[in-house]
Design goal:
Strand content: 5-15%
Distance between the termini: 39 Å
Shape: globular
Mean pLDDT: 79
Largest sheet: 5 strands, mixed
Length: about 350
């Protein structure tokens, strides 16, 4: 399914909407909403990440929670603190427990938590990689989306460990899906030394990053990477911050009307997603169903008769389903975010005053 985000519809979305308008058919949004309801129960995994191909039996350490797919057959998730944050200490503990590990997989900034690593944190992780002769594979798909005003993004490949450059043991993945709003192009690329790039599983890498990128997508990619001004990215970050303001203010308003802290949320430091915590609803009943996990909650929100709203259960990204958290996409159209939060408000008030 194609995504629509703050930078406008991507090429395929625009083309689809145009064809539908000529045929007098349903709008793209209507099609998405109807298909979303049909397929909700078929969601088993969220394929939002990059594929990493290691040799059979090799170990990899990705963070958790995380949205990834096909990371290999010997993957050991690094368990975070309760707030979802990963530290070098977590990674060191996992390395000690799994000495067969050959690679550390980082997402910087992280989806869905928005965590990004400071230079000091990257140096600690880089030192672990150098000392243990590991490769670091980094998904930097949202590297331009640091939302803290006083912070700047630092890439692992730029880190130096006692005279040893991490560029020699870092493979960096980037793409156009997030910071350019061109998810439908399926255009991504890897950055690394010739020696490291040649070690990639070439067949799988080509399939994921090249074989489905047509000539038009390649030309658009070159134009986007070479001609996009810095003002564009600044405007994008400003818009994301405004959307965070809307969500955060809405949560405060919902709690005030409910008379208790029904929802909790924190401002994400980076990225284009925000986590909302609805733990206060766990164990309550609504429409004959008990709210005992995030998937049940999200399904009820989607099927609400007076106006549904779609959120992604955070357990799909690795959170505990019983924590009752869900992910909101900040890249949606502003009016849709406002409407979605209004529908969430209506739902919360019904549940809160049901007894």
């Amino acid at each position: 399914m194609t995504s629509i985000n703050i930078l406008g519809a991507s090429f395929l979305v625009t083309l689809t909407a145009f064809v539908m308008s000529l045929d007098g058919g349903k709008t793209y949004a209507q099609e998405v909403a109807e298909e979303g309801k049909k397929t909700f129960n078929n969601i088993f995994s969220y394929t939002g990440g990059d594929c990493v191909n290691l040799h059979h039996g090799d170990g990899a350490l990705p963070p958790h929670p995380v949205c990834v797919s096909n990371v290999g057959d010997n993957v050991h998730l690094v368990r975070p603190k309760s707030d979802g944050q990963i530290t070098a200490e977590h990674i060191q503990k996992a390395l000690d427990e799994h000495p067969e590990t050959r690679a550390i997989f980082l997402i910087n900034p992280n989806n869905p938590t928005g965590q990004y690593f400071t230079k000091d944190e990257l140096e600690k992780i880089g030192r672990l990689a150098v000392e243990r002769q590991l490769i670091v594979i980094v998904d930097e798909i949202m590297y331009r989306l640091i939302l803290d005003h006083n912070s700047t993004f630092v890439s692992m490949a730029s880190i130096d460990i006692d005279g040893t450059s991490m560029i020699d043991r870092t493979i960096t993945f980037r793409g156009l899906s997030k910071d350019h709003g061109l998810a439908s192009l399926r255009s991504g690329y890897a950055i690394g030394t010739k020696e490291l790039i040649e070690k990639l599983n070439f067949t799988s890498f080509l399939f994921l990053t090249t074989c489905n990128v047509d000539i038009l997508a390649q030309h658009v990619t070159i134009a986007a990477l070479s001609r996009t001004p810095d003002e564009y990215y600044q405007a994008q970050r400003d818009l994301l911050r405004r959307h965070i303001d809307i969500v955060t203010t809405s949560v405060d308003d919902i709690n005030r009307r409910a008379g208790h802290e029904a929802l909790k949320t924190e401002r994400p430091p980076a990225g284009m997603f925000q986590i909302i915590d609805a733990i206060s609803l766990r164990g309550q009943f609504y429409n004959g169903k008990i709210l005992d996990n995030d998937a049940t909650l999200c399904k009820l929100l989607l099927e609400e008769e007076m106006g549904g709203v779609s959120f992604l259960p955070a357990s799909i990204g690795g959170y505990d389903a019983k924590d009752m958290k869900f992910r909101l996409t900040l890249s949606s159209i502003e009016n849709d975010i406002i409407l979605g939060m209004k529908r969430l408000d209506d739902f919360i008030q019904k549940v809160s005053h049901a007894h």
